Amino acid sequence: MTNTPDTAYRVLARKYRPETFADLVGQEAMVRTLKNAFEADRIAQAFVMTGIRGTGKTTTARIIAKGINCIGPDGTGGPTTEPCGVCENCVAIMEGRHVDVMEMDAASRTGVGDIREIIESVHYRAASARYKIYIIDEVHMLSTSAFNALLKTLEEPPAHVKFIFATTEIRKVPVTVLSRCQRFDLRRIEPEDMIGMLQRIAAGEHAEIAEDALALITRAAEGSARDATSLLDQAISHGAGETTVEQVRAMLGLADRGRVLDLYQMIMR
Ligand SMILES: [Zn+2]
């Protein structure tokens, strides 16, 4: 997680966005597989990340992109699962401005023309990084003809190119594309991991929040780290002193179930 001192207010979800594999909460299986692959120098040509929203698919894609292109603080390092975060590649990727790391959202660019643009650019070597990386978010939104065009490139990808796809709906991605990708299923984050993460963020913000309030936020977030973090963000900016479970309940707009039931029974009588 970032520890950069910030005077300007930043939303917590951005401030605490994981920047290394070690920061990723509750995705140990994926991290282990990636570590093994990187150490054996067998980095897949294409990856696909799937999972519900807010489980860190695009964040993971960026971390992989950094790991593949990191050159280390002294500029001599190779691909690593512990990107240094300080080399020019790491910094530019983190800020989303690396010329060799293209991020596109298939939800807004789904046409075959857009894919053709990509395909034409894959043959040019990377400008400064080790690999050119194409991150395509919500890849299931691509049109059939766009998928067909992409498939041709996946069948014979240039050695200097890697693809990282992310999707919430893996069943809508053609099997022909999936079969050429290393697939990772990002799990919903378990409640205990989520509470631990929220506690670390609250401590980092010098905010006090009751344990049962954190449990309520965790339940409302349904396994999404991003949702949990933004709920925490709202909760602690509302509360002066310790944030209580009542404040969080009010914030979430949960009706007091007991009172609703009383009312119902009264009507029935
Ligand atoms: Zn680096």
Describe this structure in words.
The chain is of the alpha/beta class. The chain is about 45% helix and about 10% strand. The relative contact order is 0.14. Helix 3 runs antiparallel to helix 4, helix 8 crosses helix 9 and helix 9 packs parallel to helix 11 (about 245-250). The radius of gyration is 22 Å and the shape is globular. Helix 5 (about 110-120) links the parallel strand 2 and strand 3. It has helices at about 10-15, 30-40, 55-70, 90-95, 110-120, 145-155, 175-180, 190-205, 210-220, 225-240, 245-250, 255-269; strands at about 45-50, 100-105, 130-135, 160-165, 180-185. The longest helix has 14 residues, at about 190-205. It contains 12 helices and 5 strands. The structure holds zinc ion.
Condensed summary:
With 269 residues, the protein is of the alpha/beta class. It has twelve helices and five strands. 35% of the residues are buried.
Q: CATH superfamily of the largest domain, called what?
A: P-loop containing nucleotide triphosphate hydrolases
Individual helix count: 12
Structural class: alpha/beta
The helix/strand series, from N terminus to C terminus, equals: HHEHHEHEHEHEHHHHH
Span between termini? 56 Å
Low-pLDDT segments, ≥5 res: 1-8
Give helix % range. Answer: 40-55%
**Radius of gyration from the alpha-carbon trace, in angstroms:** 22 Å
The total tally of domains equals 2
Beta-strand percent range:
5-15%
- Unique ligands: zinc ion
